[in-house]
Amino acid sequence: MYQATVVNAEGNPIFRVEGTAFGKSWSWRRKVFDAVNNQHLFDFRHQSLDLKNRWVLEDSTGRKLGSIVHKTQLTTSHSAIDATVRTTAGEDVLAVMQPRDATALTVTVSINDTIIATITKVADNRRILSHGDLDSSVWSIKVAAATDLTLVRSFLTCSSYFAYSSQKI
């Protein structure tokens, strides 16, 4: 079982991600929960055998909330993703995550060329233990006012996952 908990600067849990261990699932499904009230926010899963490396965001009932396309794995844009997100009004909006440096330690999330969040990896604390991996890396997140935090959580999950999986290679 894979589990990660994200905490704020004071060490209080904000949200957690759960799923099967790496390589145990065709869809790599991850369930994201609000850590305060244990509410299931959304699922994040891979579309199996997809050459374009697409991911899907779904609510707890399986209704599609949006899709994520990992732009490339082989260039300096290895952490760039495009996410099409459905608003509560039923409108599809494109949100873009772009790396700001060659190693993607800092990425920005924007909608219509307006930055809504900046995610920076502050400390890479991944350790390999005899009984498995432990990642206590530290990320700093700056979010614009009135931004949907669930959307930012999905991008943070992507950033963390891409950073983690690139170290598995």
From TrEMBL:
InterPro entries: LOR (IPR007612), LOR_sf (IPR038595), Tubby-like_C (IPR025659)
Gene3D superfamilies per the UniProt record, alphabetical: LURP1-related
A Pfam match: LOR
Similarity-based family: Belongs to the LOR family.
Full protein name: Uncharacterized protein
Organism, scientific name: Xylaria bambusicola
